[in-house]
Automatic annotation (TrEMBL):
<feature type="transmembrane region" description="Helical">
    <location>
        <begin position="397"/>
        <end position="415"/>
    </location>
</feature>
<feature type="transmembrane region" description="Helical">
    <location>
        <begin position="49"/>
        <end position="69"/>
    </location>
</feature>
<keyword id="KW-0472">Membrane</keyword>
<feature type="transmembrane region" description="Helical">
    <location>
        <begin position="368"/>
        <end position="385"/>
    </location>
</feature>
<feature type="transmembrane region" description="Helical">
    <location>
        <begin position="111"/>
        <end position="131"/>
    </location>
</feature>
<feature type="transmembrane region" description="Helical">
    <location>
        <begin position="183"/>
        <end position="202"/>
    </location>
</feature>
<keyword id="KW-0620">Polyamine biosynthesis</keyword>
<feature type="transmembrane region" description="Helical">
    <location>
        <begin position="449"/>
        <end position="468"/>
    </location>
</feature>
<dbReference type="GO" id="GO:0006596">
    <property type="term" value="P:polyamine biosynthetic process"/>
</dbReference>
<feature type="transmembrane region" description="Helical">
    <location>
        <begin position="12"/>
        <end position="37"/>
    </location>
</feature>
<feature type="transmembrane region" description="Helical">
    <location>
        <begin position="152"/>
        <end position="171"/>
    </location>
</feature>
<keyword id="KW-0489">Methyltransferase</keyword>
<keyword id="KW-0808">Transferase</keyword>
<keyword id="KW-0812">Transmembrane</keyword>
<feature type="transmembrane region" description="Helical">
    <location>
        <begin position="223"/>
        <end position="241"/>
    </location>
</feature>
<dbReference type="InterPro" id="IPR029063">
    <property type="entry name" value="SAM-dependent_MTases_sf"/>
</dbReference>
<keyword id="KW-1133">Transmembrane helix</keyword>
Length: 745
């Protein structure tokens, strides 16, 4: 066979070139995402929703790239080559990649400002790299050789590149390269990609088939199905990540695992030989939904690691079933770019729902069960047996399609009343068994099965979650997370939880309501520092603290002191100042100055040498805001402190050992540091709730450190030297990795 110009082609020989091009492009796409996140961290702060909004931006730019690829795919090879390489050249003018300097952070909503920042920083290069995957597949489909008849296997190569980059960044790139080096490395990869695209463009190829010979375009119904099959897994990826990290267990880099599994499902679904795995996933998905997804509302802190594992298995099986069905419906290669365009649109819709709509509308991660129900309605399944299939024939099937969901919904309320409210499992069991049976019988009837599955989730905690949402002030959600206020009338305490992380406790007994508890109990490192403060800084000391929480630290204030709190989330301020919930601020420091915004940026705006004591209390969660733990951040703290001031840093964490990090920074700055690991005696009395805490004290001189230790009640014996890690360099904005300081579990 010959190409349009009469040149003999070799499609099989072209395969390695196209695979390498698509692989590299996808690798660069997924490498730039965490890289830019690290660059932006000092500016963005430690918002948990940043990842979801960033993912939405990437999906939107992917859609823009796919629209562009679809638009130019109708042109001749020569015109496509010239046009695409021109776009590459224009995007290259923005190299090396870096963070744009834009205004509006104080005036724009956080979500919108982050999208603008990402667009200004990497929009051009991301756009052109995003376009190359569908465009290269379109070009490969034109190579005049039977081997190029089905180019869809290249989609698996694309996702393989994404997966490798996802795993390479935290383990092979971030620990060894500074951000500037990473930026130049990525920029070099961009140039290599442009050269590979140029070589691909020079492969002899046929022109597009005339309209009369081309396959008819897909119907709008088929395009809607493509969109839905892509949207649900995309949204489920983000909702699973949010659900895991806020309501089950907050483990560092946990977001990597759901995304990796999501990419693997694409690789399997579109790879040669992947059909057998997809077949098994379609068979298993309904049962996996029932067995693992039915407990979605109950997976709040109980058996955290087990529930995290089941959610990951659920995501993998469901996404593989849906992506496999999507791959099975792929059109002829002549419609390839149209197909990818609608897949990308589905990804954006799923991202919009999970990252933007849900946090604005829901006070809990309701998007997660909603997306699971949508998945149940999309999974192509058959009845488990032929006999069950016969039940759905004719009018009997119509009656069952209405009766089973209604009966399952009624039964779910009974399960809620008996199992959740009354804790009577034996009386709830028959109703629970009926819901499960109804769901099993309806497998293969998508809408009926989805309704029965929803009834199962409602019975197992769903009704209770909805009831909590109707209680004023019980649970609220912001861009920064989900906050739940719980009153324990047995222990006579009220606590504020941020997902699985405790953010503060207050006694319900009036005479104990000004006593700091949890991490701030008497004898803790921070309590010792405040006890010593009047002795070392006088009665008019200036105090600043980062992380308002419930305002517990406020009650260490004594008359004459000036207090300032720094808080990034307006919702936390509202909760802490609401006297129906917590009274630390209103009773102890009603005139306290509260500065809104990321603490590091806010402290940079404070007058130099202002504070006698500065407490950094932003590390009570398992996911730390790394930008507050770099040398540059500590220089900001040092500037805000008086020459003989005291810096207190809270480093209680279940997964990361921050002592070596602070030890390295203190040594680099020439400061002295001590740590107090305090496990208070808990008398078990009502109204008291103490927690183990680890606080680090840093001062410019050893003399001031001695004053601090002797001024508190514990004395020098209660403080220890920080644990060091040989070879660990101080974290900087340009170089930091949590891998070396992860605790052995």
């Amino acid at each position: 066979m010959t190409a349009a110009g009469g040149v003999k082609t070799r499609g099989f020989a072209a395969r390695p070139l196209f695979i390498a091009t698509i692989f590299l492009g996808s690798f660069l796409l997924f490498l730039i995402q965490p890289m830019l996140g690290r660059m932006a961290l000092p500016t963005l702060g430690g918002a948990p929703a940043v990842w979801n909004v960033a993912m939405l931006f990437y999906q939107a730019m992917l859609l823009a790239g796919y629209v562009y690829a679809h638009a130019i795919s109708r042109f001749t090879q020569q015109r496509q080559m010239l046009g695409h390489l021109a776009v590459f050249a224009i995007a290259a003018l923005t190299l090396p990649i870096g963070l744009a300097d834009i205004a509006g952070r104080e005036t724009l909503p956080p979500m919108l400002w982050l999208l603008v920042l990402l667009g200004a920083s990497i929009g051009p290069v991301f756009f052109v790299v995003a376009a190359q995957a569908p465009l290269m597949q379109s070009w490969y489909a034109r190579v005049d050789d039977p081997a190029a008849a089905d180019p869809y296997f290249l989609y698996a190569a694309s996702n393989a590149g994404s997966l490798l980059a996802l795993l390479a960044y935290p383990f092979a790139v971030e620990p060894y390269l500074r951000l500037k080096e990473q930026a130049w490395l990525w920029s070099a990869g961009f140039v290599v990609l442009a050269l590979l695209v140029a070589f691909c463009a020079r492969r002899p190829a046929r022109d597009p088939a005339p309209a009369a010979e081309a396959a008819p375009p897909a119907s709008w119904r088929e395009r809607a199905i493509w969109t839905a099959l892509a949207a649900v897994p995309s949204g489920l990826l983000l909702s699973t990540t949010t659900h895991l990290t806020t309501d089950i267990v907050a483990v560092p880099m946990l977001w990597v695992v759901p995304l990796a599994l999501y990419l693997v499902t694409f690789i399997v679904a579109f790879s040669m030989g992947g059909a057998i795995f997809v077949k098994h996933a379609k068979l298993a998905a309904p049962l996996v939904l029932l067995l693992l997804g039915g407990y979605t509302f109950l997976a709040q802190g109980a058996f955290a690691l087990l529930m995290a594992l089941t959610n990951l298995v659920l995501l993998f099986v469901v996404a593989l079933a849906l992506h496999g069905h999507l791959a099975a419906r792929r059109p002829p290669p002549s419609q390839l770019t149209d197909f990818y365009l609608w897949i990308s649109a589905g990804g954006v819709l799923g991202g919009l729902f999970a990252a933007i709509f849900a946090p604005l509308v829901f006070d809990w991660v309701y998007e997660h069960p909603i997306l699971l129900v949508c998945a149940a309605a999309l999974i192509p399944a058959k009845p488990l047996t032929k006999r069950i299939g016969m039940l759905w024939k004719g009018r009997r099937g119509l009656v069952l399609g209405i009766a089973l969901p209604v009966a399952a919904l009624v039964a779910s309320w009974w399960v809620h009343s008996e199992l959740i409210l009354a804790d009577r499992a034996e009386t709830a069991a028959p109703a629970l068994a009926f819901i499960a049976l109804a769901a099993v019988l309806s497998i293969g009837r998508r809408l009926t099965f989805a309704a029965c599955f929803a009834a199962l989730m409602l019975g197992l905690g769903g009704w209770q979650a909805l009831a909590i949402s109707r209680i004023e002030l019980a649970r609220e959600r912001s861009f920064f997370g989900i906050y739940t206020v719980k009153a324990d009338n047995t222990r006579l305490i009220r606590q504020l939880e941020h997902g699985t992380t405790l953010h503060g406790v207050q006694s319900l007994i009036p005479e104990l309501q000004t006593e700091p508890q949890s991490y701030y109990a008497k004898g803790s490192g921070v309590a010792e520092s405040f006890e010593a403060l009047p002795k070392i800084a006088g009665r008019f000391a200036k105090v600043g603290y980062v992380g308002l929480g419930t305002g517990s630290l406020s009650c260490f204030a004594v008359p004459g002191q000036g207090w300032t709190a720094f808080e990034i989330d307006p919702l936390v301020v509202r909760l802490a100042k609401d006297e129906r919930l917590f009274t630390y601020v209103s009773r102890c420091t009603p005139d306290m100055r509260i500065v809104m915004g990321d603490a590091r940026l806010s402290l940079e705006q404070e007058p130099a040498r202002t504070y006698d004591l500065l407490a950094i209390d932003a590390f009570t969660s398992d996911a730390i805001p790394m930008h507050l733990m770099t040398t540059e951040a500590f220089e900001v703290y040092a500037r805000a402190l008086r020459p003989d001031g005291v810096l207190m840093v809270h480093i209680s964490n279940r997964h990361i050992d921050l002592q070596p990090v602070i030890a390295a920074i203190a040594a680099d700055m020439g400061w002295t540091a001590r740590v107090r690991d305090h496990s208070p005696y808990d008398p078990g009395l009502p109204g008291l709730d103490y927690s183990r805490s680890i606080w680090v004290a840093l001062t410019p001189t050893e003399t001031r450190m001695q004053d601090l230790m002797y001024g508190g009640g514990a004395g020098p014996a209660g403080w220890a030297m920080l644990r060091e890690k040989p070879g660990l360099k101080p974290w900087t904005d340009d170089f930091a990795s949590i891998i070396p300081v992860l605790k052995q579990q």
